[in-house]
Amino acid sequence: MKRLVVVLLLLAVAVAVEVKERGDGYCKLKNGLTSRPHSVTITEFGAVGDGVTLNTVAFQNAVFYVRSFADKGGAQLYVPKGRWLTGSFNLTSHLTLFLDEDAVIIGSQDASQWPTVEPLPSYGQGIDLPGERHRSLINGYNLTDVFQSISFYTMLRLVCGTGNNGIIDGQGSVWWEWFRTHTLNYSRPHLLEFVSSGDIVISNLTFLNPPAWSIHPVYSSNVTVQNIVIQASSDSPYTNGIVPDSCSSFCIEDCIISVGHDAIAVKSGWDNYGISFGRPSSNIQINNVHLQTSLGSALAFGSEMSGGISDIHVEHLHVHDSFTGIIFKTTRGRGGFIKDIVISDVEMENVHEAFHFTGQCGAHPDDQYDPDALPTIKQVTIKNVIGTNISRAGVLSGIDQDPFTAICLANISLSITSDLSNSWTCSNVSGFSESVFPQPCSDLSSNSSLFCFSLENFSALAQLTNILAKFFPINPHKSDCIAPPPIKKKICISDDDVFACTARFLHSKPVRKIFASCRSSN
Length: 522
What we know:
By secondary structure, the chain is of the alpha/beta class. Among the domains are: 87 residues, no CATH class; 166 residues, 3 Solenoid (Pectate Lyase C-like), CATH 2.160.20. Helices cover 17% and strands 39% of the residues. It has a 17-stranded parallel β-sheet that branches. Helix 5 packs across helix 6. It is globular and about 65 Å long. It starts with a helix and ends with a helix. The relative contact order is 0.08. Pfam families: Glyco_hydro_28 (PF00295). One of its GO terms (molecular function) is polygalacturonase activity. One of its GO terms (biological process) is carbohydrate metabolic process. This is Glycosyl hydrolases family 28.
């Protein structure tokens, strides 16, 4: 039996090493920019960079021309020095939109230059109003249909918005005023939006003054956003920065964002529309970002999360002069889940509230939502955090009869400027905490550390438990993990089972007896 245990432990180490080697993150797997064999300049299509001439038609014609190179390796559309006023225009596949360092694309303040489109199916309406919404300034909406005849491309493939730190300025102040005065006819547009797209690189650009959100990829995969600066006025209403929405294999790296609402917000659809559409946001890597927001949250999950959010890894997060550092937000009627999140190596300075988990946040698109559609938030780990000049450590407020579980905090030190005794507020949550100052709520000592989620060892736990189950039948539905009749199938049937059954297995009577026997024989 001793030999068997040693073999199993070696298998566990092998599995863990394999996962570690594969788990370097999507950011390190991204490819360099595609070299285009053809190039055109926007001035060849009559564009004038004087900041006054409207160049919408020039951009549209240039993109239409570039389509002819789709089967020839694609083309680069070069935007030289100048101020290029334009309305909304579509991009195409196999395109590099390259901005010179002194080039500025300016969004028109004439609403008629921003056509309207149908609401996203996972939202059911625009972000501001029911019905149609204004199309984004630079848009990749539904372009997959154009290339369906090319069998090996099922999604939009392009490199968008690269350059030598050129600028895209949405001139959003007029839209903010229309929002405040309730004079919008349709929901505000974003600066950059791609729908059902893939293989996108957005790099070395500055985004200014978005009417609503700056970068909004939705239903997309294999997206890299790198070396980006985003700025909007601190009082600009709901101007989010980067919003991965029902996306997968997504990397955000080396970015600086200062906006009026949430700097980075991971979303996946709204209420019954998001539930029906059923596309989660998953496998998202966020690394080395500097975030600031006076009225919102630096890093947000939700509140539109009805399609689900999972497998998110955040490292080297720098937050300063912000209202909330990290927030998880949802409400009754959302359904969906937020789970398997790891956030580590965080620096916060001058932040009102470091952490916020809430089940009472967010409006509904209409009255068709199901109040019994309860969201799930679980398996969230936040570790290695240093905060200075923090007003309050955190509020963790789950939903009655639907608590947030396996919330794990470790190695956190916050310099609090208010009464330490009121620094944490908790209700309807459970989890684990270790080496956290100020001391968190007792609710966060109700779980074992085995329930804490780690992307590095998640697959290893799943595989190890299934290996062990071949030798020692266990039952995840019984408290002692002993199955009266032996179970011959895998014990960890889904991700949800892994942590619970592994923890119970390692504490079960047969396993404790085996390890005790092994120790005594030594």
